[in-house]
């Protein structure tokens, strides 16, 4: 007998489906050539909605250590993301009066992509990063980094080591946390009395409105709205005092929170964003009902597009070996017969194969050598940046394609 999964937020039974994407390999489990003939381990990728607390989440099937201990994603390969982080640090330094007496702690600090700007501003900092291979890169660049999964136990240890924080940052990590209450409890513990927790995450409202189903994969345990995280934060002694809407990752929220009794004034932005979610009916289970049908339409249109190009003798390659592409390719059963290769700047991915589809990952130089008819931009959130980088494809008549939320050719 198969037991009904329970909500990782409130513990209620999860009986409502947002979308079921079938059996999929881990999205960041890039395959080395010597293992290319070994079948992938597949896990159900099923996103559900909690009718009680409205937290959207995937079934907790995969142990976190299997996903994050050796990680292929390095944040520093995106120029636009680095600029985003630099601007953020400049803003935070000014707004929260950070100086040489302050302490900034970033959770899931990756390769030091953000803390490099904190360090150069003369502000003491510490990164907390579970992937040892990525943390080693940060340390080599002079960023102090603690290798650990963050939660209440880690927070207590860091406090004992003198790392109480004026600012705690976790960009695009809250969704990666399998025990979200333990994580937020740790944040509450490590904050100084007037400290600030700054968290960015892709906004569930955009995922639903723009059919961004390819951002669903096993390492993203939750898909977050203000309506859901307000409840999680409140349970753990935090309150939200401001929200900014930012364009990264297809439309994200930057949420500022503090301890319940801290002095930070409440911004009207909080009610404004909450009201947008309510207008889209995300405050009730019925607001999530039509997503599967729209996902199916994207799949049909994408496969039809690829079939028509193949029939016409056109060659398609991809750019950006992003995890979101693996969800899309595997849900649509796309292979190297449809997309010859995917180019990527990351040396950690070049020479490997995408999980499931076995599409090879090559250097960006391969695009110039092969001169394909179409370049499919996998990370559609970086569309403009990539089109600028690869503008030379127009010299031979090449064109760019994205598939989310619909087929778009440029």
How is this structure best described in words?
By secondary structure, the chain is an alpha/beta fold. It is built from 13 helices and 17 strands. The strands form three sheets. A seven-stranded mixed beta sheet has the order 6-5-4-7-8-11-10. It is globular. The termini are far apart.
What overall geometry do the principal axes of the alpha carbons give? globular
Give me the side-by-side strand order of the main sheet: 6-5-4-7-8-11-10
Helix content: 25-40%
Order of helices and strands: EEEHHEHEHEHEHEHEHEEHHEHEEHEHEE
Low-confidence stretches: none
* Mean of residue pLDDT values: 93
Count, helices: 13
Largest sheet: 7 strands, mixed
Distance from first to last alpha carbon: 50 Å
**What is the total tally of β strands?**
17
Strand content: 15-25%
Oligomeric category: single chain
Rg for CA atoms:
21 Å
Based on helices, strands and strand pairing, what is the structural class?
A: alpha/beta
Topology overview:
Elements (H helix, E strand, L loop, with lengths): L15 E9 L18 E7 L6 E3 L5 H5 L10 H17 L8 E4 L7 H6 L4 E4 L3 H9 L4 E2 L5 H9 L4 E7 L8 H11 E12 L1 H6 L12 E2 L2 H10 L2 E9 L5 E8 L9 H11 L11 H21 L4 E4 L3 H10 L9 E2 L17 E2 L2 H6 L3 E4 L5 H7 L9 E4 L5 E2 L1
Parallel strand pairs: 4-5, 4-7, 5-6, 7-8, 12-13, 12-15, 13-14, 15-16
Antiparallel strand pairs: 1-2, 2-3, 3-9, 8-11, 10-11, 16-17
Helix pairs in contact: 5-6
List the keywords.
410 residues, alpha/beta, seven-stranded mixed sheet, six-stranded mixed sheet, 13 helices, 17 strands
């Amino acid at each position: 007998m198969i037991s009904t999964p329970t909500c990782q937020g409130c513990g209620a039974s999860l009986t409502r489906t947002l979308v079921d994407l079938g059996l999929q390999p881990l999205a960041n489990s890039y395959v080395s050539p010597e293992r290319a003939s070994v079948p992938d381990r597949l896990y159900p990728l099923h996103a559900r909605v909690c009718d009680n607390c409205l937290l959207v989440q995937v079934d907790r099937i995969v142990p976190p250590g299997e996903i994050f201990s050796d990680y292929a994603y390095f944040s520093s390969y995106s120029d636009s993301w680095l600029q985003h982080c630099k601007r953020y640090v400049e803003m935070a330094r000014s707004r929260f009066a950070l100086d040489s007496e302050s302490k900034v702690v970033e959770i899931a600090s990756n390769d030091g992509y953000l803390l490099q700007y904190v360090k150069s501003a003369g502000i003491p900092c510490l990164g907390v990063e579970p992937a040892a291979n990525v943390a080693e890169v940060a340390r080599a660049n002079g960023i102090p980094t603690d290798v650990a999964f963050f939660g209440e136990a880690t927070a207590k240890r860091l406090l004992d080591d003198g790392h109480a924080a004026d600012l705690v940052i976790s960009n695009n990590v809250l969704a990666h946390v399998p025990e979200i209450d333990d994580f937020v409890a740790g944040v509450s513990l490590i904050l100084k009395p007037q400290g600030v927790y700054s968290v960015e995450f892709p906004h569930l409202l955009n995922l639903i409105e723009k059919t961004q189903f390819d951002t669903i994969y096993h390492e993203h345990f939750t898909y977050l709205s203000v309506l859901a995280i307000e409840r999680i934060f409140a349970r753990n002694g935090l309150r939200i005092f401001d929200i900014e809407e930012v364009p990264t990752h297809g439309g994200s929220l930057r949420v500022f929170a503090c301890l319940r009794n801290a002095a930070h004034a409440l911004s009207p932005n909080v009610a404004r964003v909450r009201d947008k979610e309510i207008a889209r009916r995300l405050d009730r289970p019925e607001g999530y009902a039509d997503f599967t049908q729209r996902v199916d339409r994207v799949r049909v249109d994408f496969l039809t597009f690829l079939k028509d190009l193949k029939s016409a003798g056109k060659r398609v390659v991809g750019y950006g070996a992003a995890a979101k592409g693996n969800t899309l390719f595997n849900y649509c059963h796309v292979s190297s017969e449809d997309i010859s290769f995917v180019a990527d700047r990351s040396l950690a991915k070049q020479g490997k194969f995408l999980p499931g589809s076995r599409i090879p990952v090559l250097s960006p130089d391969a695009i110039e050598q092969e001169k394909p008819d179409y370049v499919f931009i996998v990370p559609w959130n970086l569309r403009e940046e990539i089109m600028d980088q690869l503008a030379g494809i127009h010299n031979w008549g090449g064109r760019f394609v994205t598939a989310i939320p619909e087929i778009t050719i440029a």
